[in-house]
Amino acid sequence: MKETIKVINQLVKDGVVQGYAIGGAVAAIYYLEPFDTIDLDIFVQVNASGSDLTLLAPIYEYLVKRGYKVGGEFIYIEGMPVKFLPVFNLLTEEAVEKARTIKYSRVTTRIMRPEHLVAIMLDTGRPKDYLRISMFLERGAVNKRLLSAVLKRHGLMEKGKDNQYRFEP
Amino acid sequence: MKKYPDIREMLKRKEKHRRSLAALPFEKKIEMVFKLQERRKFIKSGRLVRTSSKSSAKSA
Predict the structure, then answer these.
(1) Closest chain B residue to A139, measured at CA
(2) Which residues contact B38 (CB under 8 A, 6 or more apart)?
């Protein structure tokens, strides 16, 4: 994954994307115990508008030119399936902006904060998202005050309350 | 009435183990994810099933 991150950092250096943060399961693993997952979700800030496919086209062109192969919804960077997602609302935008800068095997990368991960999962609302939210809450991996603030800012308080029974032990 | 074993201690230990896994360095956790993927591929390949059916055929 170290080599994969290096390539993604190069995307920023070369101006293909403005910024990025790791989200999804890999980001969750940073705060929780490891669990099986297949891909690396990268949320990117791009300086353009349009459909998601148009937005991601420069990233794919850049990577394909460097010999990386596209397979289904992923692009394989240094052997790792990577899924790029453009920030698609204020919540994901904020999640990328406020991401933590960490080191992975001495390579700098950015990872979403747990409160944003939980808010995004609540917004997405698939069964596996609810399961992971309960893992975050059970393990005390989120700051509840910060989480409430994020949910309030992004209009997710009601959804949080409506689904609370899914997270409580 | 049937008496069942008390597994509270076992569950406590499992929780403790989960917490110790969560406290591992990120690199180590990602390494474990790759191992889990290999295990999943191995199980999906059905090799384990074929091996056991071969051995049971031999022993029969």
Answers:
(1) B19
(2) none
